[in-house]
TrEMBL record:
<keyword id="KW-0393">Immunoglobulin domain</keyword>
<dbReference type="InterPro" id="IPR013783">
    <property type="entry name" value="Ig-like_fold"/>
</dbReference>
<feature type="domain" description="Pili assembly chaperone N-terminal">
    <location>
        <begin position="22"/>
        <end position="140"/>
    </location>
</feature>
<protein>
    <submittedName>
        <fullName>Molecular chaperone</fullName>
    </submittedName>
</protein>
<keyword id="KW-0574">Periplasm</keyword>
<dbReference type="InterPro" id="IPR018046">
    <property type="entry name" value="Pili_assmbl_chaperone_CS"/>
</dbReference>
<keyword id="KW-0732">Signal</keyword>
<dbReference type="InterPro" id="IPR036316">
    <property type="entry name" value="Pili_assmbl_chap_C_dom_sf"/>
</dbReference>
<dbReference type="InterPro" id="IPR001829">
    <property type="entry name" value="Pili_assmbl_chaperone_bac"/>
</dbReference>
<dbReference type="Pfam" id="PF00345">
    <property type="entry name" value="PapD_N"/>
</dbReference>
<dbReference type="InterPro" id="IPR016148">
    <property type="entry name" value="Pili_assmbl_chaperone_C"/>
</dbReference>
<dbReference type="InterPro" id="IPR016147">
    <property type="entry name" value="Pili_assmbl_chaperone_N"/>
</dbReference>
<dbReference type="Pfam" id="PF02753">
    <property type="entry name" value="PapD_C"/>
</dbReference>
<feature type="domain" description="Pili assembly chaperone C-terminal">
    <location>
        <begin position="163"/>
        <end position="219"/>
    </location>
</feature>
<keyword id="KW-0143">Chaperone</keyword>
<comment type="similarity">
    <text>Belongs to the periplasmic pilus chaperone family.</text>
</comment>
<dbReference type="InterPro" id="IPR008962">
    <property type="entry name" value="PapD-like_sf"/>
</dbReference>
Amino acid sequence: MRHFHIFLFFIGMLSISGANAGVIIGGSRLIYEGNKKEKAIGIENPDTSPYLIQSWIEDEQGNTIKDTPPFIVTPPLFRMDGGQKNLLRIIRGARALPQDKESLYWLNIKSIPSSSEENRNTLQIAVRARLKLIYRPDALSGETAEKHTDELVWKTEGTTLTVTNPSDYYMNFMFIKINNNSITEGGLVAPRLSATFKLPASNVAGNISWKLINDYGGIGELHQASL
């Protein structure tokens, strides 16, 4: 019988210290403060088998940044043996970033298992985790999205719910509900922009409620407003 390998690539979000096919990443998001020279996130391999760890930055739309990157990940590629711990360092690049509002990027961390004679006929899984990397300029330090979330403006039209964010911060939703009926689990709205969500029916009215995911991946307080 012919030997073969199957590599399955799966894109997923991680919770804090969530397991990534054996590799543990020490967070689900990074807030890069404008007055810092770098940011770091821990990685641990509790398995006995080694992994190859590859990391890179994408823009908000998920595109790989080739010219003048805003951030550089180091080391971008390394081997992590069983029981080993390491740090990924994110360093500011040469690209100028807005200093009056937050900017969103994606930190990608792919863990690729080793291939050996012992597991040649087993399923080999390479897992890519995408973590939000939010740049918060120095002028916005000391405050968070939670302090500004009541500034959100909500509007329904037909079967569409629109939320407008007049603040300088990204609003990352844990959930949005109308009259305790779930509209969406997750989602976000960028600073000074709007986002739309699908309603289950037209002419929906009543009270809207939502919670945000905070800087540490935890859940914020319940907020409510009238439509």
